[in-house]
Amino acid sequence: MSKLIEDRKLRDKVNVFRDRFYGGKVLARLLNKIDIKLDVVIAIPAGGIPVGIEVARHFNIDLKVAIVRKILFPWTSEAGFGAVSWTNKIFYKNTGLSKEELEKCIENALKSVEKRMKLFKKYLPSKIENKNIVLVDDGLATGYTMYVAVDSIKDMGVKNIVVGAPTSSIHAINILLDRVDYIVVPNIRTSPIFAVADAYTYWRDLTEIEILNILEKYR
Question: Which of 28, 35, 38, 95 is the most buried (most CB within 10 A)?
Answer without folding.
Answer: 28
